[in-house]
Amino acid sequence: MAVANIQISETPLVLYTLRRADDALILGHRLSEWCGHAPTLEEDMALANMGLDLLGQARELYAYAAKVEGKDNDEDKFAYLRDVRQYRNLLLVEQPNGDFARTMVRQFLYAVFADLYWRAMMQSKDATLAAIAAKSEKESAYHVRHALEWIIRLGDGTEESHRRAQTAIDDLWSFTGEMFAVDDSERGLIDAGIAVDPAPLQPQWLKTITTVVNEATLGLPASNWMQQGGRSGRHSEHLGHLLSELQSLQRTFPGATW
Amino acid sequence: MTTPNSPLWEVFIRSRNGLAHKHVGSLHAADATLALQAARDIYTRRGEGLSIWVVPSSAITASDPAEKGMMFEPAESKIYRHPTFYDVPEEVGHM
Amino acid sequence: MYTQALNTSDADDRNVEDAARAAAFQARIDADERIEPNDSMPAAYRKTLTRQISQHAHSEIVGMLPEGNWITRAPTLRRKAALLAKVQDECGHGLYLYAAAETLGTSREELVDAMLAGKAKYSSIFNYPTLTWADIGTIGWLVDGAAIMNQIPLCRCSYGPYARAMIRVCKEESFHQRQGFEIMLTLCRGTDEQKAMAQDALNRWWWPVLMMFGPPDKASQHSDTSTKWKIKRFSNDELRQKFIDATVPQAQFLGLTIPDPEMKQDEAGHWLPGPIDWDEFKQVLSGNGPCNRDRLAARRKAHDEGAWVREAAAAYAAKRKRRQFAQAAE
């Protein structure tokens, strides 16, 4: 690679902020891949809107991470000059779009979580995080609405759409546990009233997911085995390909301004 | 293969409170819920609205332009419906 | 422009129209009245407009592909957001335009099917590849610049729904050209490599952009009726000249060279281009451009892979209606 990775002082607050920023960037990037290829023009518009919401969240969070870190990193250095092992997003959001059912299931599983999470974060003692959460919550609330309407239609639509939606749930389910995991770095911030403790959000998350999945005549997998690793940079193979595309210009032309 | 037609909807948006909903365009959606979401995603991207109505295009009954004479011209001669028809001396002031 | 393939005449259709009604229609047009969907109109007017508006819509939708090619590779997050928003706008514009075309009595699905079957045209410009990031700047600066030149007069076109769609489109597009010019300016003030990238993109796009305005006036058959019906208000050559005159100083500002050694300025200040290669234009329009096959393949793939989603939504809507009836009957 022509340009070296940046170094980051991952203090707990920087790491915490980067994790949320990476979730938003990677999922937003995935949604942006749909642009021009969606099942209807109306849905093309919707997917781009959600992608732009997430991209906006990522940028605010990166800006805050840069401020907290106090080095000369910025949103673009965080996005373009970290490799796979330095990315801190959930495994769920980096999973490929697949068909429309997979994209909607991924969106649904994440958005229901994100909405609860942002709502809790609005109470953070960190004023910047609380403000970002207040803005993001309105966006994620709509993402929930949009995704759940589709889950219901795909599940209760045709045989084919039902099969595709069920396959997507079965394949993505093992990536949901990571959303509720907490490590030592985050524990301290939770105790200080800055970070959100995700554990208490899980029952509500599961309740919403179950209600919608039932209404969609779909089911949740029996297996409770959950994959972990995204938060500490142990990703699926998919992320490397995403990053090589995302970062290609910045890596090819060292130090250029765009 | 011929793609089956999907229902067409007309979209009306209230740009701010105090104003009436105004027709802004159309879209395709399988049902009312998806139509409302699509209207939000298509027609309010630049903060154009505070309230949206979607109406199935098939639910609209329109007057026939060919009957314009019968429908609308009789109103044109009723000039006494307008305030300017009446003479009030200027010294009376605004009325 | 986006409807540049409109070169056949519909004059024959008018023989079947009642002469008196045609005259009354023309009188309305001459009085600058707007024609609305349910109004009586000559069959040829309806046909010409359906074709022009749908070609315009196809162009917006196919036009998402060359720029969409760079959304995942945009070099900064700011550029990425702007590009995604811009390409999304193109989708919206296609959508508005299909809706305008539908008011003339042909469904969006029929119009799209014709495009996917290769039976309908779209703008030749989108059959060229986007090879570098500078192509994204150039498209915004020149392709959108050319489109705006063409679209502003369409805001006053005689057909109400088309004119209203164009007003919305023009309002939204106002950021597109600026976005492109800003990319070019950044490249031109950047490294030598970036500047070379910008010049290379201009070299590749300049002539195809001039072709966007359609064949020269003396070779364009349809312009007469379109002008008479106030669908078209300026000729291809007039718009092309206006575009060149506006663009040359911008290129000079960027420090870029227009790739036309024969270009010269006349006494009135107009920049007169060298000869345009109309054979290339014809080839691209007839399907032999560098990307015609890729573009259609991409649209067909999206359409085919989306079929089960559209079917699912329709099936669910039908089921729910049945359930509601059943409930009401209880």
Quick structural summary:
The complex is a heterotrimer of chains A (258), B (95) and C (330). With 258 residues, chain A is mainly alpha-helical.
Note down, in words, how this protein is organized.
The complex is a heterotrimer of chains A (258), B (95) and C (330). Chain A has 11 helices and no strands. Chain A has helices at 12-32, 41-69, 75-80, 91-94, 100-121, 127-155, 159-172, 184-191, 202-215, 238-246, 248-252. In chain A, helix 1 (12-32) packs across helix 8 (184-191), helix 5 (100-121) packs antiparallel against helix 9 (202-215) and helix 6 (127-155) packs antiparallel against helix 7 (159-172). The radius of gyration of chain A is 18 Å and the shape is globular. Chain A starts with 11 loop residues before the first helix and ends in a 6-residue tail after the last helix. Chain B has helices spanning 32-43, 68-76, and strands spanning 8-14, 22-28, 51-56. In chain B, strands 2-1-3 form a 3-stranded antiparallel sheet, with helices on one face. In chain B, a hairpin with a 7-residue loop joins strand 1 and strand 2 (22-28). Chain C has helices at 19-30, 43-62, 64-68, 77-102, 108-116, 133-154, 160-188, 192-211, 223-228, 236-254, 278-288, 292-329; strands spanning 264-265, 271-272. The model of chain C is unreliable at 5-14 (pLDDT under 50). Chain C has 12 helices and 2 strands, in the order H-H-H-H-H-H-H-H-H-H-E-E-H-H. The longest helix of chain C is centred in the C-terminal third of the chain and has 38 residues, at 292-329. Chain C is 66% helix and 1% strand. Chains in contact: A-B, A-C, B-C. Chains A and C meet through helix 1, helix 2, helix 3, helix 6 and helix 7 of A and helix 3, helix 4, helix 7 and helix 12 of C.
